[in-house]
């Protein structure tokens, strides 16, 4: 039985992609171990849905957040993980910050180890990455990616960019989709938030942080002409209080706290449309296919998206909603007005067809093929 160590530099509290991947690998007969960063009050060792998790405790964890100190914390994490997991058969590196661990193990301790590099975003083109830091990240990925036996990423456009950048075999595409689920439409938002039956509910779910078009969405719904259009923001993040405060002023803007993944789609299905308004602030965003897009589809609600390459292509090729012509409040208002005029039965048929393609069961097949190919030669 091959031992897979999946490394992630977060506390593994809300990382659905890493969890799904490890459940799939365990089911296929691999011995899996997730290694993450410890954070109080989470357990150092536990099982999450039968997946063993080790959150590594750092002596330096409580030190300051200055850049140099953060680097010391990072090196301590690398040292502890390499020491304990160098005998693994496969190191699954989630994002660029964990790739050095796999490479160190391969170069100095275990030449037979296989490295899977799973880039959850366009790693060298992240939002806010600039100057010397961006140059360093680009240099690091260029140097380390050649040690990866397989590369996985999350959109076709990003995979094409990696081929051009590094002259590597095209990375495998494993999208962050939910498991397939037959949906019984719920009405939770109307029941809990006192939204009227004749009002159309537009839902934004996910991280409430900058770069996601939240401020633009708020502006759009503050000034929208359609008095029956309401928006629900469901999630958590730095902009939570802004949304809550705005919802007190405007009757068509609502906030709902985040819910656990096992009941998420019941809430999602309670909306009429799902909105994904990523801003065009970096290439990683331009080429993204957010998991909320696939959650909307699994819940069988049509989508309204900002005018970004991958999201636009998915929506227009499959006729499952509308695309804002401009990533502005006016552009969004026009897309919303256009969406309510679409043929509901046609949308439903198209979405039901698409969810049989974009689900975790289909993505799992790609992941397992990647792993089989590690030992094909």
Q: Please, could you describe this protein's structure?
A:
The chain is an alpha/beta fold. 42% of the residues lie in helices and 18% in strands. It contains 15 helices and 14 strands. It has helices spanning 16-27, 67-85, 99-108, 131-144, 156-166, 188-193, 214-222, 240-249, 261-268, 283-286, 291-298, 309-318, 329-339, 344-354, 360-373, and strands at 3-7, 31-37, 45-48, 51-56, 90-94, 114-118, 150-153, 172-173, 200-207, 229-236, 253-257, 273-276, 303-305, 321-323. The chain has an 8-stranded mixed β-sheet, with helices on both faces. A 6-stranded parallel β-sheet has the order 11-10-9-12-13-14, with helices on both faces. Helix 1 (16-27) links the parallel strand 1 and strand 2. Helix 1 (16-27) packs across helix 15 and helix 2 (67-85) packs across helix 3. The longest helix has 19 residues, at 67-85. The radius of gyration is 22 Å and the shape is globular. The two termini are 18 Å apart. The mean pLDDT is 92.
Helical content class: 40-55%
Q: What's the count of strands? A: 14
| Poorly predicted regions | none
For the sheet with most strands, the description reads: 8 strands, mixed
Mean residue pLDDT: 92
The Rg value, from CA coordinates, equals 22 Å
Coarse structural class: alpha/beta
Strand content: 15-25%
Q: What spatial form do the alpha-carbon principal axes imply? A: globular
What is the chain-wise order of helices and strands?
EHEEEHEHEHEHEHEHEHEHEHHEHEHHH
Strand order of the largest sheet: 3-4-2-1-5-6-7-8
If helices are DSSP runs of H or I spanning 4 or more residues, what is the number of helices? 15
End-to-end gap: 18 Å
